[in-house]
Amino acid sequence: MTTYKRVLLKLSGESLKGDREFGLDPDAVDYVAGQVAEAADTGLQIGIVVGGGNIWRGADYEAAGMDRSTADSAGMLATIINSLALQDALERTGHEVRTQTAISMSAVAEPYIRRRAIRHFEKGRLVIFAGGTGSPYMSTDTAAALRALEVNADALWMAKNNIDAIYTSDPNVDNSASKLGHITHLDALQRRVGALDATALSMCMDNGLPIVVFDMFKPGNLLRILRGEEIGTLISDKATASVKKTRTVTR
Q: Which fold has domain 6-235?
């Protein structure tokens, strides 16, 4: 078994749309909630950041002429919609959930307060971090890295849509592409891995936070990672696969 105590799970918004072109698919949301609940039942403390690409993609609207800050703000609101849907699905599995937003929205969620989030973890609750970082020009990958570091997570788990690992090249166009089981943060940056935001990678590298890139839609993968199985790609600053030592939380 690994020494994971607390992790930050990053979900793409597209993972919640199922086979639909956009929006939320209730079956996909319930599936994701079930996988998270299964891992939480082991005692793992889980924080979640979910993207908003199934509802709104700011880059597309910026390309159409919209102001970047405005487009990104709309994207933050999309992540809150997804977070509330996921909160409801997780609560139906019998787990206590708290959603915290980087944008003030007290009628539907708590404001993001680091120490309160940590206390929720200590009480066995799942915590969803919505609204990105609260600032434009920052991706939800960056928000996930930031929250992971702030709440002293042991790792950042990246469940990317239609991506099960990092490869030497794009496997969709290169049949000779091979899967990379483990690379360093610097390797990932130098390879310009398109599946990961460079700012998020740099933050994790600077603070020694491991990242696991894996496929959420293979049932049981969360539990396999917990058992120490080599699932997807591990990005860490060690020459061999390892898990960051659990840190002590100062109250």
A: Carbamate kinase (3.40.1160)
Selection from 99, 49, 31, 46 nearest residue 225 by Cα: 46
- Tell me how far apart the alpha carbons of residues 79 and 56 are, in angstroms, rounded to a whole number: 9
Contact (Cβ atoms closer than 8 angstroms) between residue 160 and residue 195: yes
Dist. CA 173–CA 241, nearest whole Å? 28
Task: Judge residue 18's burial from the number of C-beta atoms within 10 Å of its C-beta, 0-12 exposed, 13-18 middle, 19 or more buried.
Answer: middle
d(CA 43, CA 223): 12
- Which residue(s) pair with 126 in the sheet? 97
What is the layout of strands, in order, in the sheet containing 110-111?
Answer: 110-111, 97-101, 126-130, 45-50, 6-11, 155-159, 211-214, 233-235, 182-183
Beta pairing partners, 111: 101
What token pair was written down for 191?
Answer: 């390879």
Question: Which H or E run includes 61?
Answer: helix 58-63
Quote the CA–CA distance of 178 and 233 in Å, as a whole number: 12
Which pTM value belongs to this model? 0.91
- Predicted confidence at residue 2, as pLDDT, reads 56
User: In this structure, are residues 214 and 164 in contact, taking their beta carbons and an 8 Å threshold?
Assistant: yes
Nearest-angstrom CA–CA distance, 194 and 88: 32
Angle at alpha carbon of residue 84, lines to 79 and 85, rounded to 5°: 100
Ordered by start, the domain boundaries in the chain are 6-235
**Which of 73, 79, 193, 178 minimizes the C-alpha distance to 128?**
79
Residues 6+ apart with CB under 8 A from 172: none
pLDDT averaged per 10 residues in sequence order, the chain, 251 residues: 86 93 95 97 97 92 93 96 98 98 94 98 98 95 97 95 82 80 92 84 96 93 92 81 37 30
